[in-house]
Amino acid sequence: GQSLEQPSEVTAVEGAIVQINCTYQTSGFYGLSWYQQHDGGAPTFLSYNGLDGLEETGRFSSFLSRSDSYGYLLLQELQMKDSASYFCAPPGPGRRALTFGSGTRLQVQP
Amino acid sequence: DGGITQSPKYLFRKEGQNVTLSCEQNLNHDAMYWYRQDPGQGLRLIYYSQIVNDFQKGDIAEGYSVSREKKESFPLTVTSAQKNPTAFYLCASSPGLRGTYGYTFGSGTRLTVV
Questions:
Q1: In the sheet where B4-7 sits, what is the strand order?
Q2: Angstrom distance (rounded) from CA B85 to CA B38
Q3: A50-101 confidence digits (pLDDT tens)
Q4: What is the share, in percent, of chain B residues with pLDDT greater than 90?
Q5: DSSP labels, chain B
Q6: 3-state secondary structure of A45
Q7: CA distance linking residue A22 with residue B68, whole number of Å
Q8: Mean pLDDT calculated for residue range B27-50
Q9: Is A68 in contact with A52 (CB distance < 8 Å)?
Q10: Looking at CA atoms only, how far is residue A47 from chain B in angstroms?
Q11: CB atoms within 10 A of CB A56
Q12: How confident is the model at residue B1 (pLDDT cuts 50, 70, 90)?
């Protein structure tokens, strides 16, 4: 089976740093992806961690610890346009298609 | 430009009707997927296909059907057996299932039962 947990909402101010955590339980593990979705839009791919450690892509970084079944997305120098929902997504049981959590709604305030 | 196209953008269905949502990609991706999203919720997997002429049920396949006759196309039919079909439907494609290079999503179809 599989379970995913993310905070439902996070609020931060422009220019700040925010971390969105994701804990998972899945039989077998094959990496963790992160997606961003603006209201009314389609999800867009942000990052993928196949191994433990930090992956950096511009203002966004993603971390994975397989032994702790834990990952996080770090957003730096927050901008108003970062207000969106963020989803962590591991593959489903049996190396199946990605399973998406309920998402974390990030609200960036001036 | 390569991408994934869903049509129509909005669709209204009467009770008891079957409707088909279109999904076409020109990214040369092997894998394609259908997800359903309800307001304020995450994405739930309906069906996925790793290769032409093969597809697998996801977590909420009941009341839906798909076909994969061409690499580029993965249409979804919402049948009358789906009791609560009003939702946002998202199609995606990727080079492989694991998501290493990311899934590319279409812009979605909003289906409403009237």
A1: B4-7, B19-25, B76-78, B64-66
A2: 10
A3: 999 999 989 999 999 988 889 999 999 999 999 999 999 988 777 678 989 8
A4: 81
A5: ---EEEE-SEEEE-TT--EEEEEEE-S--SEEEEEEE-TT--EEEEEEEEETTEEEE-TT-TTEEE--SBTTB--EEE-TT-S---EEEEEEEESSTT-TT-PEE---EEEEE-
A6: strand
A7: 33
A8: 94
A9: no
A10: 8
A11: 12
A12: low
Give pLDDT, residue B85. Answer: 93
Which two three-digit tokens encode residue A46?
Answer: 């942000």
For residue B79, what pLDDT is reported? 94
Looking at the DSSP bridge assignments, the partners of residue A18 are A75
A45 touching B, CB under 8 A?
yes
- Which of A94, A101, A90, A86 has its CA nearest to residue A33? A90
Strand partners, A3: A25
A41 Cα to chain B: minimum distance (Å): 6
Lookup: tokens for A3: 């379970």
Alpha carbons B73 and B48: distance in angstroms, whole number: 12
| CB–CB contact B100 A48 (8 Å) | yes
Question: Cα(B30)–Cα(A4) distance, rounded to whole angstroms?
Answer: 27
Q: What is the pairing mode between strands B10-13 and B109-113?
A: parallel
